[in-house]
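Can't attach files on this board, so I'm pasting raw text. These are the components:
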Amino acid sequence: MAAFIRNIPDGDNRERSVCSDCGFIAYENPKVVVGSVIVERGEVLLCRRAIDPRRGFWTLPAGFLELGETDEEGAAREAWEEAEARIEIDGLLGIFSISRIGQIQLIFRARFAGAAAFAPGSESLEVALFPWNAIPWDTIAFPSVHWALDAWHRIGAGPLGPPARNPANDPRGTGRLERSPEDRPA
Amino acid sequence: MAAFIRNIPDGDNRERSVCSDCGFIAYENPKVVVGSVIVERGEVLLCRRAIDPRRGFWTLPAGFLELGETDEEGAAREAWEEAEARIEIDGLLGIFSISRIGQIQLIFRARFAGAAAFAPGSESLEVALFPWNAIPWDTIAFPSVHWALDAWHRIGAGPLGPPARNPANDPRGTGRLERSPEDRPA
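---
Top answer:
Structure tokens for the assembled complex are below.
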């Protein structure tokens, strides 16, 4: 039976997964995560995760970019899938490198397209708007959610400049939150 | 023998390639291209491609981000592999969505780390610095090389603001250059 082996293909300089039967090379590269900080009257939309990892923790509507869509289309799709929110995108708020797990995250600043309507999608337990001082900081799902919220807090509704990047204490995106994935909120 | 079939996995909402034998799901997502506009005394470094597609055409040093590296590390690696240039990165010049081929391109503005030393890597036929008015516009490899060069021309050495995005005439990155890939320069 065919099986993947690790091999350096001709003309390449690093090991790939190669099918020992047909020679097919399964390139594995980092993936793009697209998401948004959706702001309504100074409050930000967060979703409580219904799925692992980090079930029960709060996150921004975000997910993997799919083939055939642009980054902004992907962010709008995720806002719909996770929060049933229709959005208009302002521009790029932050671009984060998470080398530990092979991700580039593009986070946009956005607002509702029309009235502020939202509801939990199938991957969310609940969805809510939070003012800055009521954000559930103890139960945020991922470090980059903190980074994006910090970037939003710095500029608010002001003009977007260069996108925020990884913070100085985690330039390569290798850190974890102190809380373990198994330590779920009640 | 095992074979991949197209199927919508449980909990998903689009077709994936699934192994009919073991159920392994081969997710295919867009890839990240990282590259740089390397500037020296107002001139920009271009590489003439030694490989397909677009062999013989000029491009920026750029390529696929690899697992385990940050976007800036990837851009620096590509500058070394394609142009034997050691660089220092200023910041993000442009972020382009090329939905036609499933790419997100992150293009940085950079300069040489130390003296301006460069040479063709294995994927380049030649490497050279060009002032704006001597750029070989008729033999540029890809539309996004035009976009990145335009972005650099607009800001020069000035402060970086929001990164350039796709131009208004190709917001989804679906266009091609008029010249066909087979139409190689002499």
